[in-house]
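Q: For a teaching handout, I want to show students what a protein-ligand complex looks like in token form. Below are the inputs, and the small molecule is NAP. Please produce the holo structure.
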Amino acid sequence: MSSPDVRQILLTGGSGQVGAEIIRLAPAQFQIVAPSRAQLDLSDAAAISRLVASQPWAAVINCAAYTAVDKAESDVVTAWAANAMGPAAFAQATAQAQIPLIHISTDYVFDGSKDGFYVEDDPVAPIGVYGASKEGGEQAVRTANPRHVILRTAWVVSPHGANFVKTMLRLAESRPELRVVADQRGCPTSATDIAQTVLTVLARMVADPEAPTGAYHFVNEGEASWCEFAREIFRMAGERGLPTPVVHAIPTSEYPTPARRPANSRLDAGKLRRDYGITPRPWRVAVEEIVATLAASRQKQEP
Ligand SMILES: NC(=O)c1ccc[n+]([C@@H]2O[C@H](COP(=O)([O-])OP(=O)(O)OC[C@H]3O[C@@H](n4cnc5c(N)ncnc54)[C@H](OP(=O)(O)O)[C@@H]3O)[C@@H](O)[C@H]2O)c1
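A: Here is the structure, written as tokens, with NAP included.
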């Protein structure tokens, strides 16, 4: 039996990049309960209400989402069910239970036309189904449960799951040259660092009913285009004996995708620093850790 000081936290998306890191890094004071999608689907509002009401959770963290940005363009109903209806059900159920809700959101709520880093109260204007559905989720959370933190992040990478670092290293194995988009800018961000941030916010929200609430941005420090990001990944990979293809810069127009992406995805994390004392690491430091982990696991696999 767990000690009465151990608080139970309900987490969705435990098999995803961010959720898996939260489970790995959670301190002993939190027992993280992470039902799989098969056990709790975001589209099942009744199941969400039942589970939240079923026991005295200290908080809910909603990391799960329909994250297939291109597929969402033709799978609108499913994307909205997961990214807007699911969070709405969590927001209502957590409000009823009077517990905090930490909800992860995205830079894709913005259209990317701003000249500079986005702050939390910049107007949202999503340009695709994924962004619009995530914005729907934000609105629902904001409306139903005043004790919420909406944590927007961007360009998430980790040694697990589907992400840009893994895609680049995989392509490098078979291609001597790559063409990578150079006119979209953002802030590469480690899932590990997002998880640490979520756990810091969680500890404060659980301990203090007056803890700051609202929307926050968290990304690693610095910025890059996808092309610059790729070149940095290969510089780090090269130092570890991995293949290093030549990277050619191309405009977005030469890499058409079903969903449009914001040209500017840069987020300003100053509010989180001011309210929660969280200072992000530079993205190169965080990404180097990921490349090192992936390089080491590749060496282990080699005969
Ligand atoms: N990845 C990025 O670059 C990025 C950028 C900005 C914001 N975000 C946000 O950050 C959060 C975490 O992203 P991530 O990269 O960790 O995601 P991820 O690796 O794609 O994982 C998504 C998670 O959501 C679960 N899921 C998907 N649909 C579900 C449903 N209908 N019901 C229940 N669970 C469902 C998945 O379960 P299965 O394993 O069963 O599929 C998985 O655990 C999301 O809110 C995302 O919108 C991500």
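A: Two things your students might notice: The first strand starts at residue 7 and ends at 12. The first helix runs from residue 17 to 25.
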